[in-house]
Amino acid sequence: MNNDNPSAAALLDRIDLAQDDSRIVETISLMFKASDYHQLLVSFQGDATQPPPERAIKFADALNKALGYNDVDAETHNRILRALRRTCAEVGILPSSYYLDENQMKKITDVPFASGGYSDVWRGLYKGENVSIKAFRVYMTDNVKQLTKAWCKEMVVCQSLSHPNVLSFLGVVSTASLPLCIVSKWMKNGNISEFLKRDGQFDRRPLLIDIARGLNYLHSLEVVHGDLKGPNILIDDNNNAVLCDFGLASITADAESAHASTVNSAGSIRWMAPERLSIFDGSSEPAPTSVRVTKESDMYSLAMVVIEVFTGTSPFSDIADAGVIIKLSQNKRPQKPEGAFQLGLTDPIWGTVEMCWKTRPLDRPTATDVLEIWEKEINGGGVPAIREQGGRRLSRILSGFSAGIKSKGTPWSKFVCGGSGEQYAQ
After folding, report:
1. Could you list the residue ranges forming a coiled coil in this record (predicted)?
2. What confidence score (pLDDT) does residue 402 get?
3. Which terminal CB of the chain, N or C, has fewer other CB atoms within 10 Å?
């Protein structure tokens, strides 16, 4: 390979992390075009029993620094992000800047403040500031190497996100006593369920919009939350809802350990879409079965979150988990909460709930659809119809609209006011 077409390895050697970001972006762009680029990535993996090669860490640091360059075009930015995620996933590393100073980190309590299906949360201090330390639970039976790679892959996504309704994280810690930890700002108001129990008359409607905005942002970037439920929706200091724990369900699935296959659904069955539980809809046509989380399964979970927000309890709170599965296999869903209208659960909002928990994933609206409906309903201006999806027109409209309201046209369907709030696919 001559000097006019240097190898990817040679280009990586040229990178000085102290260089201007623009020069690093230029060099990385040349690396992408080099004929041996993919061979270089393979070489990073090395011996699984040995520490990651220094060149892999340098490449990850260079990619991360390049992402901070504001003048890079969208296509190049996305390719750099994909390269960083792939490198971190395949090697099991993160850019050096992700790691926080362990000497500045301190757990305040000896026991977790909260625990979930696959993580424990401690309250801590970092440089004197209150923080949340979420530790991914690691068992001796786990494929630790694979688990670490999956964790690194998702941390790159988390670090790249920026939205007021999505929790940002300060960095990571990974030590013998605190393996695979995510550190974020401490939310003193707790999760949405705890917050609403303390203030039962708080207006839920702005919180619904916050949740929909956060979920729509994630989906716009092809990020699936995977475990949307009340405990994973925090309330910030300004009483805004903030989504957290997105992507962690994918870590357990990607790890492919015996532990991961069970822990992925632990504690979340009540919010879990039927297809994730391999449940049929009772007709001759089965629901698609997929244990993988999808945007559509997120939309089902969103419907259950609405139930949670307006009842103060988890969906199907009066029955055990096994009973929930039986209910879903019978195509049954929670009843509309009594008295919830006074808390903001209008007929149009309830109509979106009924659409979101449809058994067939393609019959469910998108996050964009739901956000637009809720914003128009809550902020005024009338409510549009559900957007067409999957080649099927979802044309019967949410009840409770004012007569005479007209659709804004494509891509919204023509709508007709209905009295029951039930939705039918034509």
Report:
1. none
2. 32
3. C
Other Cβ atoms within 10 Å of 347 Cβ, number: 18
More confident residue, 116 or 423: 116
For 22, 78, 185, 260, 267, the CA distances from 66, given in Å and listed in that order, are 7, 11, 26, 34, 39
CA distance 202 to 146: 43
CA angle in degrees (0–180, nearest 5) for 176-180-181: 100
Angle between helices 54-67 and 74-91 (to 10 degrees): 150
| pLDDT score recorded for residue 385 | 46
Instruction: Tell me the CA end-to-end span of the chain in Å, nearest whole number.
Output: 61
CA atoms of 409 and 381, how far apart (whole Å): 15
Contacts of 206 (CB under 8 A, 6+ apart): 240, 378
State residue 265's pLDDT score: 46
How many residues in total does the chain contain?
426
Nearest by Cα to 132 from 231, 250, 252, 253 = 231
Is pTM beyond 0.90? Reply is no
CA torsion 206-212-213-216 (nearest 10°) is -170
Beta-carbon contacts of residue 410 (< 8 Å; ≥ 6 apart): none
For residue range 165-220, what is the model confidence (pLDDT) as tens digits?
Answer: 999 889 998 877 777 889 999 999 999 999 999 988 888 999 999 999 999 999 99
CB-facing half-sphere around the CA of 135: CA atoms within 13 A: 21
Within 10 angstroms of residue 269's Cβ, the number of other Cβ atoms is 18
pLDDT of amino acid 304: 95
What would the two tokens of residue 144 be?
A: 């630790």
Q: Which residues contact 144 (CB under 8 A, 6 or more apart)?
A: 138
Residue with token string 């409906």: 373
The token pair that represents 135 in the structure block = 């530790």
Q: Is 197 exposed, middle or buried (0-12, 13-18, 19+ CB in 10 A)?
A: exposed
Q: What is the DSSP string of 6-72?
A: --HHHHHHH--TTS-HHHHHHHHHHHHHSTTHHHHHHHHH--TTSPPPHHHHHHHHHHHHHHT-TTS
In the predicted structure, residue 413 carries a pLDDT above the cut 80 = no
Name the 3-class secondary structure at 156: helix
CA atoms within 13 A of residue 235's CA, in its CB half-sphere: 21
Q: Which residues contact 99 (CB under 8 A, 6 or more apart)?
A: 171, 172, 173, 174
Res. 419: pLDDT tops 70: no
C-alpha distances (whole Å) from 363 to each of 61, 357, 390 are 43, 9, 8
